[in-house]
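Objective 1b of the project was to move from sequence-level analysis to a structural picture of ligand recognition. The entry below was assembled by the postdoctoral researcher (A.K.) and checked by the PI before modelling. It contains the amino acid sequence of the target and the SMILES of the bound compound, fe (ii) ion.
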Amino acid sequence: MTAQHPPPPAEPGSAAPHAQPVPPPPPHGATARGDAPPLSPAPSQADIDEAIGAAHARAAHAATRDHPPRDFPPYRSSALRHPLAAPLPLRDPEAVELRGPVFGVTDVTALDSDLTRRHHAEPLGERITVTGRVLDRRGRPVRGQLVEVWQANASGRYAHRLDQHPAPLDPHFTGFGRCLTDDEGRYAFTTIKPGAYPWRNHTNAWRPAHIHFSLFGDAFAQRLVTQMYFPGDPLFPYDPILRSVTDLAARERLVADYDHELSVPEWSLGYRWDIVLDGPAATWCEEGRAR
Amino acid sequence: MTEPTAAAPAAMPLPPTPSQTVGPFYGYALSFAGGGDLVPAGHPEALTLHGYVFDGAGEPVPDALLEFWQADPAGATAGAPGSLRHDPATGQVVGRDTVRFTGFARVPADADGHWTLRTLAPGPHRPAAVPYLALLLFARGLLHHLHTRVHLPEHAEALAAEPEFAALPPERLNTLLAVREAERRYRFDLRLQGEKETVFCDFPLGPHQPPGAAPVPGAR
Ligand SMILES: [Fe+2]
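Corresponding predicted holo structure:
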């Protein structure tokens, strides 16, 4: 797994304590990639690498580094969108957030998990299946819960009007799917491998190929929105979003495994990605209120 | 990555999958028809909750996504399926039926950062509880979603008396209170950063959250 292989200047140890602060993005405004508009001059990849090193050094002493710090300057859009105050801890064991929404057969159809069959013909790209299990932190399956995915097409273009990356749209690919987990917490999608795409965080910024995932647990407090990456992507070291997760082991949990057993002869390549939902479910389930 | 095994619950807590930003392009996937209509228009008990999402510069956040989860008026938190009810012929989401209260809503902010929810007032989820709507906020630029709570103004005093909120200064506590604008219409703005920043919360109940996991206030 190569969630990290050091780009020249900025990896562990070499964290640059004197990094120039990355300029915050100018006030809002939709742009070609729907992201931070280009600055003049936009930060270079080297500026961003240095800022990542500095942010990782700052995070090194955090009690947990499972999730990204919300204040992560190399991802410039985070500058004005993170609270300054620490969250207020709430420990009421009967909080509404310890229950959660339910979904059922009315909410998902069998076809929703196959992103290659939404149109009259098949999309271009490398056909893949992505499967895995959704678990709580005790390793128990999250059953009957909603999993949603969305992604760019094989050329790295989203079917979203604000995405103006000059790569072709695919009339046979929209790129979103849903399913419910089964009794073992399993989910499965058939899709095509998304392409990498450019964005305007800095000059020559490219996102590694990824699939966006949205997950529900039994408790609203377990909710997770994240991104799954593909093993061995050479763009990992350059991406401030993946590297907003400051701990290498945590970062590697965002990378799927290629699993040859899941590949279907003469049809598709298989990836496996298990997901562990954070949150307090482990406690309250033991109190007998699990659904 | 670790391959957790199925049968026996893990003795040690499994490390969680990290959060990543929702990004700018969730709109064609996560948004669904009637996402903010927990009850149909014209429902005699319906109340409208609406507001803006602002960033640290006071600018509206046009690509925020809000989710709500709440008890029904009787205080039940069992929820019901059907938030994403499909038309089986077209596969399109057609909105909730008009009978079951699912308790879950999803509302993307408009281009001006404004959002609207039509719902019923939540009841107390246990005897004497202060009712509220749980609100989850996602946005491009936000690497990890934020939880907060919306309370109706008639519960202001009860909220201030809750031990978990007692330490908040009044102006912070006020960020958790909707403002009554008209009969059955309430306003609730969210501020991600800075002056009048919304109070966000987390749920450190699990055995796996070491104390001190939360950043120390003012330590940045
Ligand atoms: Fe993306």
